[in-house]
Structures are given as structure tokens and as C-alpha cells.
């Protein structure tokens, strides 16, 4: 008997799909890899690098991984909340010892800071679909797509002026004035990506008072704790705001301060008078998204935080990483007056005052790779004259302009 002919009578699902433009940062990374010049410098990728150009596995992380290997007895499922001990141990770091005790704070482990932000955004969309999220720009390029994926409206405002290298606080005030009660304000808690321009404590106080007076909800993106001025200092502005408001969300990343980027370790914390209900809603959303976060990285962070000795070693290594970043900032500023503002900025990034054509010339003529916006990874320099070479190259491509 003849086989029945199967004919495609329906339109193709993917036939009309257009390819996405390539991510400029990934394209830059690929170009860097194929560049044959020995003296090339990569300032594009957003990871800490040591003086030899390596993103190290931190000592305490290595020890914790060994302990985990020896002692783990099961790989059985956890739950959508991930590792609750990890979430609890992280709390005093994030909120300070006193605030961490509050039963108004609930938290879940998430796949990295990205997962925390996405879960927070979905939670907001579930309870308040018409809320706008106010976002200072420039910002981490994933903020807008992430908020849009959760179907939240986004209102941008200017955070920073690259030419004058100043944080535009009046624009923040303007945004907080225009926002409607119930709107959300996404704030980077420290080490602003990409500008390195953080609010002062006085500015945080004004923000806190305005949020409270206007009924706005802060959503903190806290991705670089310890890489600015110190673990507590980097949290100080956020903690001040939390003393003023009834409700807040915090998307936290441990990926950077524990150097476990690819392990995807983060947590979403929510402050609310209805904390238990928020927790169960967040659990349901996590279940529908990733079911449960992967365990390894969080288990490692938990083991470090459970051991006073490993915690001391982790903190010491983190202090050293921060000292290297601050030292690089000071050296850049001292070498080229055009880079003076880099010393005032904090964290892994600065967005220097440079034209896109000059960025292209740095790559073509000097093998120096950085994002077109002028963002540099301050920890991206190897300690063999790269800082000096960069400062000189910047001066040469900028000329007298
Ligand atoms: C400002 C900011 N928030 C969040 C994240 C996300 O971090 P993670 O890698 O833990 O998802 C990043 C990562 O680059 C970031 O720069």
C-alpha cells in the first residue's frame, strides 16, 4: 500500500524569523581572541582579573569545593527556593546583622543576579502589571530586555553625563518626582555598571526620603558588593533606603564577589509586611521559570560562610581584589588628566570620556579592546605596563579634541 503523502499545509513556525544582531560585546570578545598581536589588551569583558590577566578561582572557593566533593552524599532535588541556608547566611552580609533578623525579609536562591532580577521583575508584574520601572541610564544592557521580558513598562532617565563625568542627580530627583505612587525605581546599590558613578550618602538620604514620601518601591540591583569600598560600605546606601521604606526588592549576585561567575549564584530578597505570601508567590514563579536553581555554586558560598576561617580568607582575598581595582584607578588618573574622574568612581567599570572613533583607533592602532560606549574594565589590565600603555594610547587618540 502506498504511504500517505505528508504535505506542509501550515505556515512555518520559524520560517519568517530574523536573526538577532550580534551582541556587540560578544563580537568584541571574538575579535580579541583572533587578534594576533601579542600586546593586545582586553578591557571589554566584565570580570575581575588579577595582575597576570586571570580570573582566579578564589582560595576559599577551592577549599569549599574540595569539602563539597568529599562530603556531599546526594545530588537529590532541592526546591524552588534553592538552598535556604545559603540564603540565610548571605542575609547579614547584605542587610547588616540587625536588619537581617527582620521577619519582614524573605529570600530565595536564584540563578545569578540575572535570575534574581528577572524573578523580582516577574513578581512586580504579577502584582502590579501597570507599574513602571524607572531606570537610570546608561545602565547594564540587560536591564531593559529583562524588564521588557517581564512585560513591565520602563521609563529611562539620565544617570550620568560622560562628557563632564558627572552623576546627574537632578535627573534622579526629576524621575522620582514624575513617577506615580506604586512605580518601581531600579537602583544599582554600588559599583554602577557601566559608569562607576555611585550616589553619595547624602544623595541616598534624599532618594530614601523621596521614595518614602511618594510611595515608590526601590528595586536594588546589588551585583558587586565588596568591590567598591568594602562589604559594609557598599551596602550602606541601600541599607539607609531600607530604613525608610516599607517594601523593597533586592536582586543580589554572589557571582562577582565570590568569583563564581559561571556557577550562577544569586538571591532575590523582598522586604514586605506580607512577607510569607510574597515568598510563596516568588516560589511559584521560580518553579514555572527554572523549577529550581542549580546547587553547586550556592553550596560553595554556603560552605565558605559557614566556616569563620574560610570567611576570613574569602574576605581577605576580596579586600585584595578591591585594593587592586582602587590602585588601578589611582594609577590611571595620575597618568592622564583626562582619566582623573576614574579615581572618584568605584567598582569594576568606568565609562571614560572618549569618542567612538577614538575607541576604534585604540583597537586598530594599539590592540586595545573596549566597548564602544567608552566602558573599561578597570581590573582588565595586566601588571606589566598595560596601564601606562593604555593611558598613553588614550592621550594619543584623543589628541587635543
Ligand atoms: C549591574 C549588574 N547587575 C546584574 C548582573 C548579573 O549578574 P550575574 O552574572 O550574577 O547574573 C550584572 C552582570 O554583569 C551586572 O553588571
Can you say what the CATH homologous superfamily of the largest domain is? Answer: Type I PLP-dependent aspartate aminotransferase-like (Major domain)
Number of strands: 13
Instruction: Note the beta-strand portion.
Output: 5-15%
Under CATH at level 1, the class of the largest domain stands as: Alpha Beta
Number of helices: 14
Strand order of the largest sheet: 2-10-9-8-7-3-4
Range of helix content? 40-55%
Characterize the overall form: globular
Q: What bound compounds does this protein have? A: pyridoxal-5'-phosphate
Look up the CATH topology of the largest domain. Aspartate Aminotransferase, domain 2
CATH architecture of the largest domain: 3-Layer(aba) Sandwich
Low-confidence stretches: none
C-alpha termini separation: 81 Å
**Major sheet summary line:** 7 strands, mixed
How many domains make up the 3D coordinates? 2
Tell me, rounded to a whole number, the average pLDDT.
95
Structural class: alpha/beta
* String of helices and strands: HEHHHEHEHEEEHEHEHEEHHHEHEEH
Radius of gyration in whole Å, from Cα? Answer: 23 Å
What can you see in these coordinates?
With about 400 residues, this protein is α/β, with parallel strands linked by helices. The chain contains 14 helices and 13 strands. It has a seven-stranded mixed β-sheet with strand order 2-10-9-8-7-3-4, with helices on both faces. Helix 8 links the parallel strand 7 and strand 8. Helix 5 packs across helix 10 and helix 7 packs parallel to helix 8. It is globular. It starts with about 25 loop residues before the first helix and ends with a helix. About 45% of the residues are buried. The model has no long low-confidence stretch (mean pLDDT about 95). Pyridoxal-5'-phosphate binds next to helix 5.
Amino acid at each position: 500500500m502506498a504511504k500517505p503523502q505528508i504535505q506542509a499545509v501550515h505556515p512555518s513556525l520559524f520560517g519568517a524569523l530574523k536573526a538577532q544582531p550580534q551582541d556587540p560585546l560578544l563580537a568584541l570578545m571574538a575579535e580579541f581572541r583572533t587578534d594576533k598581536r601579542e600586546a593586545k589588551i582586553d578591557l571589554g569583558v566584565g570580570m575581575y582579573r588579577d595582575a597576570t590577566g586571570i580570573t582566579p578561582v578564589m582560595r576559599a572557593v577551592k577549599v569549599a569545593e574540595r569539602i563539597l566533593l568529599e562530603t556531599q552524599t546526594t545530588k537529590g532535588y532541592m526546591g524552588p527556593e534553592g538552598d535556604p541556608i545559603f540564603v540565610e547566611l548571605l542575609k547579614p552580609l547584605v542587610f547588616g546583622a540587625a536588619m537581617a533578623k527582620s521577619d519582614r525579609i524573605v529570600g530565595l536562591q536564584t540563578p545569578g543576579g540575572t535570575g534574581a532580577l528577572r524573578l523580582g521583575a516577574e513578581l512586580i508584574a504579577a502584582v502590579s502589571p501597570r507599574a513602571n520601572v524607572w531606570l537610570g541610564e546608561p545602565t547594564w544592557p540587560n536591564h531593559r530586555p529583562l524588564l521588557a521580558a517581564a512585560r513591565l513598562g520602563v521609563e529611562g532617565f539620565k544617570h550620568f553625563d560622560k562628557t563632564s563625568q558627572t552623576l546627574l542627580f537632578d535627573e534622579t530627583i526629576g524621575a522620582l518626582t514624575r513617577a506615580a505612587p506604586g512605580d518601581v525605581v531600579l537602583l544599582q546599590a554600588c559599583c554602577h555598571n557601566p559608569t562607576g558613578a555611585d550616589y553619595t550618602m547624602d544623595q541616598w538620604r534624599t532618594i530614601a526620603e523621596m521614595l518614602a514620601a511618594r510611595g515608590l518601591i526601590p528595586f536594588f540591583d546589588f551585583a558587586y558588593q565588596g568591590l567598591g569600598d568594602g562589604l559594609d560600605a557598599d551596602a550602606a546606601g541601600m541599607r539607609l533606603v531600607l530604613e525608610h521604606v516599607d517594601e523593597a526588592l533586592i536582586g543580589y549576585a554572589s557571582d562577582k564577589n565570590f568569583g563564581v561567575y559561571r556557577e550562577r549564584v544569586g538571591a532575590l530578597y523582598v522586604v514586605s509586611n506580607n512577607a510569607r505570601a510574597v515568598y510563596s508567590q516568588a516560589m511559584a514563579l521560580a518553579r514555572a521559570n527554572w523549577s529550581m536553581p542549580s546547587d553547586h555554586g550556592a553550596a560553595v558560598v554556603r560552605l565558605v560562610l559557614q566556616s569563620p576561617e574560610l570567611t576570613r580568607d574569602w574576605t581577605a582575598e576580596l579586600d585584595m581584589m578591591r585594593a587592586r581595582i582602587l590602585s588601578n584607578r589611582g594609577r590611571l588618573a595620575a597618568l592622564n588628566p583626562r582619566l582623573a574622574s576614574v579615581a572618584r568612581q568605584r567598582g569594576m567599570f568606568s565609562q571614560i570620556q572618549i569618542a567612538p572613533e577614538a575607541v576604534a583607533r585604540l583597537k586598530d592602532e594599539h590592540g586595545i579592546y573596549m566597548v564602544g560606549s567608552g566602558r573599561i574594565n578597570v581590573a582588565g589590565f595586566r601588571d606589566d605596563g598595560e596601564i601606562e600603555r593604555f593611558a598613553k594610547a588614550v592621550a594619543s587618540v584623543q589628541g587635543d579634541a
